[in-house]
Design goal:
Length: 671
Amino acid sequence: MIPMAAIFCMLVLLLSCLISGTSAQYNTQYCDNSKGNYTINSTYHNNLNTLLSTLSSHTEINYGFYNFSYGQNSDKVNAIGLCRGDVKPDECRRCLNDSAVTITQLCPNQKEALLWLKTGKCLLRYSNRTIFGVMQYSPGFYLKNVNNVTDADNFIQALSNLMRNLTVVAASGDSRRKYAADRAIASNFKTVYVYGLVQCTPDLSEIACSSCLEKVISEIPSCCVNAIGGRILRPSCNIRFESDLFYDQTPKLDSDVTAPSPSPPSSLNNTSPEGSNNTVIVVIAVVLSTVVVAVSFKEEEGKKTFSRQVPINQDDDDIEIAQSLQFDFDTIRVATEDFSDSNKLGEGGFGAVYKGRLPNEQMIAVKRLSSGSSQGDTEFKNEVLLVAKLQHRNLVRLLGFCLEGRERLLVYEFVPNKSLDYFIFDPAKKALLDWAMRYKIIKGISRGLLYLHEDSLLRIIHRDLKASNILLDEEMNPKIADFGMARLVLLDQTHANTDRVVGTYGYMAPEYITQGQFSVKSDIFSFGVLLLEIVSGQKNSSFRHGENVEDLLSFAWRKWREGTAVNIVDPSLNNNSIINEVMRCIHIGLLCVQENLTDRPTMATVMLMLSSYSLSLPIPSEPAFYAHSTTRSLPATLSWGHSSRATTNESTNKSAQESENENSITELYPR
């Protein structure tokens, strides 16, 4: 039972919002403690993380419905992801990826939970019980528009007819989509329309879908009487109606029976779309709950995109966001104790990184970029805004920036356990990383790279993935860092070229070194090298086995061909119970470093290989730079491109391999 004092406070908050006209934004979630809880790092927790991180990676799905399971017996996790029928595949995957991050934050230990993001464009739910093909009506949520219709009788009648017609169309859909949207005339005095959509999870039968939608429609008078808009959300079905057009025209699927919605009349072409300014009331109606809480919020404004073609001072929202990310130079100077050597964490081609502490006690890492960049302030800010949008648990988060004179500073979250190379290449410290920890790091890097390649707002190629750019947090979770050389490409672009090859030898793909061609597959090559390093515990450039020294790729391939791949494994990993998993990782690593880039798997496929042991792996071909003797196979200098800035491993005496780095955060390809 919720205390009366709490109820009173919530009602006061509601009234104050309504009176003042302010609004708030809320996700709609339900964390079910009645179905049990899990403990952190338990088998169920790991299965859940694996399933959520790979749910939206199935790029062959273009109809917005994902239903997958992972695990066995009581630790099996079942998950459903459903995007609204008008949401495009790329936007759908981004929505589900954001949901996967958000739901585990809002419901940190519940075995069953569901979430509708505040955009209303996707639903994500998971459970340890069977949820596929089962019509579930609880919990429920109402979202009501506070504005009322002027011709209530005609509006209600038109809405009722529209919803029932849409129910017939949606319920007759196939196993990919049960969705329908259309409009109806709501007033004869002047042309006023009511727009509506209905949707079920496609795993329901036609009868179950009809039953669910009919129940929802019957609730309209009690939740949204005389309102010009509203939503009713249930786990298995949902509806929405508005007086303005809020959905996009949906391309028909093959054999789709859904009739296309007619285009709105010209007089309504400027009505508010999804990101309208209408205020609505959210009502949480959980079955068996004794309290209904109402709060007001404004629907999320349509997301802005940023590019170099739009100066930052042309959009007030851009200015506001940029200002919120900009740090005062004196604040950073004080936080780092005037960039003292005692606070220096490292230094590379980009400049130095310093540890700092803000006045609120938050720890930060400050990257002080080298001088000499030709990039203007506006472009620098726009690229910061782009990178700041990248938020994933396996990426180091950019907190902001500072521009003052020739000073260009990037402020990142502080990650306390240094970088992966600090552990994995140290004879003593590598013993701290058992196989469970190393496998966790491998999968975390995979998730972060998958996000960059497929699930982020932009497709990003890192170009310098290596052990020293994998930072470890307090729980040894990996975070990909250093986007100083990252390239943003079009979402449908498969590769690009540059006359400036930057990166670190040993991790760079052959097509990138020799031709300047980079793609997601060049990142896959780097990942494969990194994977073999984690398994072996040695650097790619100097793999030592007894008295023999050769590069890691040559050694791994030779031992694989000889059937003695176990000799690649770090001797500190002496547990025979994990040998099959280790061998599988060596196999995946060799697939990633194949010379022909078309033979290398995508990051989504790598995730499946790591997660599903029933998936058979293809036989790898000879890796790039394979040496048929024990001599180094990597060239000491480049034979292509006069402006290359790549460095060989032999050219530096520093403790970790470093990369010469362009000063910009990214090189943006217009979208």
